[in-house]
Design a protein that fits this description.
Layout (H helix, E strand, L loop, with lengths): L3 E4 L8 H11 L4 E4 L5 E2 L2 E2 L13 E4 L10 H6 L4 E4 L6 H9 L3 E4 L2 H6 L4
Parallel strand pairs: 1-2, 1-5, 5-6, 6-7
Antiparallel strand pairs: 3-4
Length: 120
């Protein structure tokens, strides 16, 4: 299964990032929740330390708006994911171009829809 970093992870059940963590787990994917809040989601502590090494990342799925993404650029690119999913509201041409230059696939899609339609 695909190891997925959920960037913008939240312990708030009304947030899409929260739902994504749970749905990814239900579909058998290894999930690493990453964010700024010291909390837990899906039985896992949210990683808040950007220096924590995460390896073998297949997908970064974004739940951070474009205005708050620049502080994450280096972190995301250093993960060397195979792809980045820009969920609705996270679209960012600058990050997309940086990712493509690093040979990282970029998708404008919704992780929850992809999981529901077996296209993840």
């Amino acid at each position: 299964m695909k190891k997925t970093v959920v960037l913008g992870a939240s312990d708030n059940p009304t947030r899409y990032a929260y739902k994504a963590v749970h749905r990814l787990q239900q579909h058998g994917h290894e999930v690493v929740p990453v964010g700024i809040k010291n909390a837990e989601v899906g039985g896992q502590k949210i990683v808040t330390d950007k220096s924590e090494q995460i390896t073998d990342v297949d997908t970064v799925t974004l739940y951070v708006g474009p205005r708050n993404q620049p502080v994450w650029y280096d972190y995301i690119l250093d993960l060397k994911p195979k792809r980045i999913i820009f969920n609705p509201g996270t679209e960012n041409r600058e990050l997309e171009e940086m990712a493509q230059k690093a040979n990282i696939e970029t998708l404008h899609h919704c992780t929850l829809v992809m999981l529901a339609s077996d296209s993840y």
